[in-house]
Amino acid sequence: MQLVFATNNKNKLKEVQALVPKHIKLLSLSDILCIEDIPETKPTIKGNAIQKAEYIKTNYGYDCFADDTGLVVEALNGEPGVYSARYAGPQRNAEDNMNKLLTELKNKDSRTAQFETVIALHLNGELKTFTGICKGEITIEKHGEKGFGYDPIFKPDNFENTFAEIDLDLKNKIGHRGKAVRQLIEFLNRQ
After folding, report:
1. Which of 96, 110, 162 is nearest to 134 (CA)?
2. Residues acting as catalytic residues
3. Which range (15-24, 39-48, 79-88, 166-175) has the least confidence?
4. I need a surface site. Which of 29, 77, 81, 149 has the fewest CB within 10 A?
5. Under CATH, what is the fold of the domain 2-190?
6. Residue 20 pLDDT class (50, 70, 90 cuts)
7. Which of 72, 92, 88, 91 has its CA nearest to residue 80?
8. Is the bond leading into 156 cis (omega within 30 degrees of zero)?
9. Is the backbone of residue 149 left (phi > 0), alpha (psi -120 to 50) or beta?
10. SS3 sequence, the chain?
11. What is the Cα–Cα distance from 183 to 95, expressed in whole angstroms?
């Protein structure tokens, strides 16, 4: 089976490739020569995942899946949420995003947060979605060098370390994207 994973994020691709069985060949956007920015204009994480998958299916004709992920912080009324990648501006800079989030939380008592990933799969003319959630909290400062995005400031529940301090296998086991990808794989294995 061959599927396009509609992402240009090499870190996401690496995480997902580590989970996908060998009989499923993943193609990236660069593999199908998709170099344009895929629209992400929906007001929800699920809506953006569906929009990206539909864009690839409509414009390139491939069976594919796309994900969208947001960090939802309770004390900030769900921010950054659907705007997680561009929280500090259109430059999509992880350091800027983390710094803005830490500043916004400076005088807040609660640091409760959760990552949510939704994967939209376009396969054989049908659309399915899969959701993974990882609850945790935002740390006061950055810790760790691994991972990407908000990983240095997100500590999952029941763990002492941030996502940026744990190895990829553990992150995939407990994390939001890993949970959603496992649901996707279970579905694909039944096809």
Report:
1. 162
2. 68
3. 15-24
4. 77
5. Maf protein (3.90.950)
6. confident
7. 72
8. no
9. left
10. CEEEECCCCHHHHHHHHCCCCCCCEEECCHHHCCCCCCCCCCCCHHHHHHHHHHHHHHHHCCCEEEEEEEEEEHHHCCCEECCHHHCCCCCCCHHHHHHHHHHHCCCCCCCEEEEEEEEEEEECCEEEEEEEEEEEEECCCCCCCCCCCCHHHEEECCCCCCHHHCCHHHHHHHCHHHHHHHHHHHHHHHC
11. 31
**Annotated domain spans of the chain:** 2-190
Say which residues have a Cβ less than 8 Å from residue 158's Cβ, sequence separation at least 6.
none
Structure tokens at 6: 């509609």
Structure-token pair, residue 57 = 């299916």
pLDDT at 16 over 90: no
